[in-house]
Amino acid sequence: MSSTVSPTLQVCRECGGGAPLDAHFCPQCSKILSLGRHGDYFAFLGVPRRLNLDAADLEQRFRALSRQFHPDYFYNAAPAERRASLERSSYLNDAYRTLKNPVTRAEYLLKLEGLTTTASATPPGLLEEVFALNEELDAIRERRAGGATRDELSAQLERARRPIEQKREAHERDLADLAAKWDTTGSRDVLEALRDRVLERNYINNLLASIAQEANS
Asked: Which CATH class, in words, describes the domain spanning 9-100?
């Protein structure tokens, strides 16, 4: 057999046969395949690279694969097979945990497509809200330093929180629309717009956390 293997194949360590990257068991000898290089979580679970997935179908796939990979079934197998079952079980758990949550699913897909979801500065679309919030929080801190109680500051904190929460709700609607467009078109422009919204949403969540921290001070 040639030592040159297509990049779309993985090699069975048991029989040397080739198998598709998304296969879990060797088509030739039926042995569980070592994890090695794999495509991505979507391919591993056998679902399309989309942002809207059927939660029940995803769970069914996870449970079916969990049974197939369970180390108990490989208790008396060769060491390489036991190791492969553990590797695939661990990878499966990571894949399911990531894809079952719409937020981590979107961040993972963006990463696969080469788009970062880590903001190094305030997103331009939030500059106005951040400026207004910082002014409001500075005023709250001054009042607290002057002896105001938590109850006395609660209305002001709610006033600071409300526009940020409204912005978050609007972003969630935008994200849902963009996710549907991506699933339909696969457009790079749509994906980049989605990335921008994800960056802004993450920043908004940090702002809401800051408000909550002030409320508990």
From this structure: mainly alpha
